[in-house]
Inverse folding.
């Protein structure tokens, strides 16, 4: 097992972990692929997009079950977004790879500065079926299930 | 203009922005859509959950376009999927044990450092 392979595993695991903590882990994989492996920017972005899909899909199913998703807001945003996705993909194909990387870099710097200077606030209670325990992620639910299993309590999907 | 049409306009404009960023950069849509949803009155947890529901179909379309235009191949992403899932589980397990505030600040500094390095390449 060579060092690059181990680092790739760690980068993917790190991206997944930070994503689960709500810190935008998607950037990590692109950073690793472009800076450490010199993967061209568009290729790294494509890999990152596919990397995001399974986690988001599972999260979406669980969030829907918990009624955390406001579907009335989703539809107009998606309808507005789909045509511009095509525009964005077209623009990404037309922009020089170096400059595409620089735009991505700009996004990272903005996100970093915003996080660095943001004040941590306690999240407001969620609007959902189970407001006291409402969490947006499947991972919180798995952790809760694990804790209950460890303490010998049985748990079924219906309990959620 | 009524409040309802103003909201619809905001959603349409927000959707356009998030779609463009998703297609252009393959990430970062949450940066636009989460604050917008909070501005439209959703609590933070609902905003994050709803943001995933918005970004998911947009990311599917972006992935399909990237694949069809030959920018990457499925096999290139495959090695990262399993460790990513394991990392996500690990992240959730550590979530309650790691001081989030400082981890966020450290990650923010890392993003700025990586951004500057990527910019100066």
């Amino acid at each position: 097992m060579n060092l690059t392979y181990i680092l790739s595993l760690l980068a993917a695991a790190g991206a997944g972990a930070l994503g689960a903590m709500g810190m935008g882990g998607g950037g990590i994989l692109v950073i690793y692929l472009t800076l450490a492996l010199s993967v061209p920017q568009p290729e790294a972005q494509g890999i990152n997009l596919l990397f995001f899909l399974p986690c988001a899909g599972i999260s979406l199913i669980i969030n829907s079950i918990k009624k955390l998703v406001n579907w009335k807001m989703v539809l107009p945003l998606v309808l507005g977004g789909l045509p511009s996705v095509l525009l964005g993909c077209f623009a990404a194909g037309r922009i020089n790879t170096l400059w595409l990387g620089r735009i991505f870099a700009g996004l990272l710097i903005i996100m970093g500065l915003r996080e660095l200077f943001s004040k941590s606030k306690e999240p407001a209670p969620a609007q959902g079926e189970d407001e006291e325990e409402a969490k947006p992620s499947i991972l919180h639910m798995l952790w809760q299930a694990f804790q209950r299993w460890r303490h010998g309590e049985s748990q079924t999907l219906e309990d959620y | 203009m009524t409040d309802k049409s103003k909201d619809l306009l905001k959603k349409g404009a927000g959707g356009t922005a998030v779609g463009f960023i998703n297609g252009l950069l393959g990430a970062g849509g949450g940066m636009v859509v989460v604050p917008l949803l909070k501005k439209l009155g959703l609590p933070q947890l609902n905003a994050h959950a709803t943001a995933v529901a918005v970004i998911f179909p947009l990311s599917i379309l972006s992935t399909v376009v990237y694949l069809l235009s030959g920018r990457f191949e499925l096999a290139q992403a495959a090695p990262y999927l399993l460790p990513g899932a394991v990392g996500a589980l690990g992240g959730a397990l550590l979530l309650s044990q790691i001081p989030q505030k400082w981890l966020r600040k450290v990650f923010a500094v890392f993003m700025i450092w990586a951004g500057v390095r990527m910019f100066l390449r």
In short: Chain B touches chain A through 90 residues (CB under 8 Å). The mean pLDDT of chain B is 86.
